[in-house]
Write a structure and sequence with these properties.
The complex is a heterodimer. Helix content of chain A is 62%, strand content 8%. By secondary structure, chain A is an alpha/beta fold. Chain A folds into two domains: 2-185, Rossmann fold (3-Layer(aba) Sandwich), CATH 3.40.50; 203-568, no CATH class. In chain A, strands 2-3-1-4-5-7 form a six-stranded mixed sheet, sandwiched between helices. In chain A, strand 2 (39-45) and strand 3 form a beta hairpin. The relative contact order of chain A is 0.08. Chain B has one domain: Ferrous iron transport protein A (FeoA) (SH3 type barrels). Chain B is built from two helices and six strands, in the order E-E-H-E-E-E-H-E. In chain B, strand 4 and strand 5 (61-65) form a beta hairpin. Chain B is globular, with a radius of gyration of 11 Å. The chains are: A alpha/beta, B alpha+beta. Chains A and B meet through helix 3, helix 12 and strand 9 of A and helix 1, strand 5 and helix 2 of B. Strand 9 of chain A pairs antiparallel with strand 5 of chain B, so a sheet runs across the interface.
């Protein structure tokens, strides 16, 4: 099978081209570095299938960073290269094109974002560009699919470009020459989006904008999440699902294992979706009616911010703060993704340069960034005692985040690398692309998170039925009661937290804790062990030593913070 | 007459020509890939005093540079 590479600068739309050509769905955003590692899929090329590989974005082929090394080594085994070029930024992009043209691999150029270029008053003479480069050039708009057919048809008969080898300096001169021949710029006024782009990155106006954006995002997530729960999911569970469960419960012996596992305990003879803790009662309710609405709302808002192009600007504004923690502004990406789920958060630490930064960032994500599931449950369990308790938990976690970041920066050898980041223009997100990305993330939640929720509830129920927890609870009781001031039953929740934190908070909800005890236990739960999925990803990204370091920091700091809170509150 | 200054010290909205980059091979490479190299005209859009990052426009692109990098880029500006 032929191997075809998609190569281009960061943030030119390679991932969108990839999903257009293969039908394999990948996540694309309006910022550089969405693709870490590489994705491959099959595409139809004439009558044959070919393997299409989406290479992480590179600016050059000098092997000056990991992504470039990967691109270079893949290039040697490729049968053809599709070079995706941002038509609105021809000068910067063509440097890579010229470099690719010096290699032996057949080359075709996809002149992407063709519509954006036209809106910006940029005209490119395609035949002249083809002549100057000596390779086929096809204008494309990947988000709408325009030009994709042409691209595939012309890909069938690409040839080796055979450009002569140039020095770096000569290549730039040649880029300048080509651009002056093929491109004409129409002078025009700043668009509203360009003006907004500049206002949101200059500190004097950018900081108020950032506060506003974060506040509005949070409010929107609450509004959508809470609204879906109150108007759709809770009524649906109460009026549609409950009768089924009542019938099922009536058909079983309430003391049997099956009943304990599937339905759980009857509270005053009734099934209670929060407290019964059966697989079909609380298990489904937590996963679908309490957590899912927030996951949906979070990814809807995040997707918009990503595709609009806001996040790189936030990174610039937060650069100074992040430096105090040994990171630079771009580390805001793993942090924000972590608020959805820690797993993609930890994976996104690959956008950072050094192992030191990756250790700090992934430790901070797993300690102090509560995922959407955890947050949803905290709101669900603690919210009706008063919003100030929930806000308190966020505040404590934020302080912990800053404190541990600064401590790690002071203790770990090395220094923090500097920010060097291309800031993309604001683009109005295409609704189709937004929905597509949302859909993929929802699927991932149902495939990767929901089974763990169910597994968590199953394990809890079987162990509780066999009274296996009592021994553990007795053993850990001194620690839990003296240090954290919690009843010994809370130990079960803390143990279950390793499997799934939302399930664990659900268990806390059945213990009749005071709001203060809830604040302590929720904070300790959030900070201590990562959930099993995050644990696996941490091990993969940091290696065993890194994982050990990270987990030790989590245990020590959660013990310290828990003890401190139980004294202070 | 042109004077030579580190990028973080020039005023905003003033065009400047990159004169030299005081850094190792790696920094040279990373900046060159972004088309920030001697001879290129850039405009500073934003840059706080002290430790904040500097933002420049070169061609159609905007790039954010950490303070430590901006300090190493020497530019010529018309005084």
């Amino acid at each position: 099978m032929k191997r075809i590479l998609l190569i281009g600068n960061p943030n030119v739309g390679k991932s969108v081209v990839f999903s257009r050509l293969t039908g394999v769905h990948v996540i694309a955003s309006n910022y550089p570095g969405t693709t870490v590692g590489f994705t491959q899929g099959e595409m139809l090329l004439g009558k044959d299938t070919a393997l299409l590989i989406d290479v992480p974005g590179v600016y050059g082929l000098e092997a000056s960073c990991k992504a470039e090394e990967i691109a270079l080594s893949m290039l040697e085994q490729a049968d053809a290269v599709i070079n995706v070029v941002d038509a609105t930024n021809l000068e910067r992009n063509l440097h890579l094109t010229l470099h690719l043209a010096e290699k032996d691999t057949p080359l075709i150029v996809a002149l992407n974002m063709w519509d954006d270029a036209q809106h910006k008053g940029i005209t490119i003479d395609v035949p002249k560009l083809e002549e100057a480069l000596g390779v086929p050039v096809v204008p494309t708009v990947a988000v709408t699919g325009q030009g994709m057919r042409d691209l595939v048809i012309r890909l069938l008969d690409v040839r080796k470009p055979g450009a002569r080898l140039r020095s770096e300096e000569d290549r730039w001169t040649e880029v300048g020459r080509i651009v002056s021949i093929v491109q004409t710029l129409q002078h025009r006024h700043h668009t509203f989006l360009e003006l907004a782009g500049e206002l949101s990155v200059v500190p004097s106006t950018g900081v108020p904008v950032a506060v506003l954006v974060l506040f509005v995002s949070f409010a929107a997530i609450r509004l959508v999440g809470e609204g879906l729960i109150r108007l759709v999911f809770e009524p649906a569970f109460q009026s549609l699902w409950k009768p089924v469960l009542v019938w099922l419960s009536g058909a079983m012996d309430p003391k049997a294992l099956v009943h304990a596992v599937l339905i759980g305990n009857l509270i005053d003879g009734q099934i209670d979706f929060v407290q019964s803790f059966g697989l079909l009662s609380t298990g489904l309710f937590v996963a679908i009616a309490m957590v899912f609405p927030y996951v949906l709302a979070f990814y809807l808002v995040l997707g918009f911010l990503e595709d609009f192009g806001y996040l790189p600007r936030l990174a610039v504004l937060l650069d100074t703060l992040m430096h105090r923690m040994g990171l630079h502004g771009w580390a805001v990406i793993p942090m924000l993704l972590g608020f959805g789920c820690n797993v993609p958060g930890v994976m996104a630490t690959r956008v950072l340069e050094s192992p030191r930064e990756r250790l700090i960032a992934s430790t901070l994500v797993s300690i102090a960034v509560p995922c959407a599931s955890l947050q949803a449950m905290v709101w669900g369990i603690l919210g009706h005692h008063g919003a100030r308790y929930v806000v308190g938990v966020y505040l404590i976690l934020f302080l912990v985040w800053v404190l541990i970041g600064r401590l790690l920066n002071a203790l770990l050898k090395g220094d923090s690398p500097e920010l060097l980041l291309e800031i993309p223009p604001y683009r109005l997100p295409s609704p189709r692309a937004l929905m597509h990305k949302l859909w993929m993330r929802i699927l991932a939640y149902f495939k990767e998170a929901v089974p763990f929720v169910m597994l968590g509830v199953l394990v809890v129920n079987i162990l509780a039925y066999m009274k296996a927890f009592t021994a553990v609870a007795d053993l850990a009781a001194p620690l839990i009661t003296r240090v954290f001031g919690l009843p010994k039953d809370a130990v079960l929740a803390l143990v279950v937290g390793f499997l799934r934190k939302d399930v664990a908070v659900g268990m806390l909800g059945t213990l009749n804790l005071t709001p203060k005890q809830l604040v302590v236990s929720v904070t300790v739960l959030a900070m201590s062990f990562p959930c099993i999925a995050t644990f696996v990803v941490l091990a993969r990204e940091l290696g065993v030593t890194g994982l050990m370091k990270s987990v030790s920091i989590m245990i020590v700091s959660s013990l310290a913070v828990g003890a401190l809170l139980s004294i202070l509150l | 007459m042109a004077i030579r200054l580190p990028l973080n010290e020039i005023p905003v909205n003033q065009p400047a020509v990159v004169a030299a980059i005081q850094g190792g091979r790696e920094l040279h490479g990373r900046l060159k890939a972004l088309n920030i190299r001697p001879g290129v005209t850039i405009t500073k859009i934003s840059g706080a005093e002290g430790r904040g990052p500097t933002i420049i426009r070169n061609g159609q692109t905007q790039t954010a540079l950490g303070c430590g990098i901006a300090r190493k880029i020497l530019v010529d500006v018309e005084s």
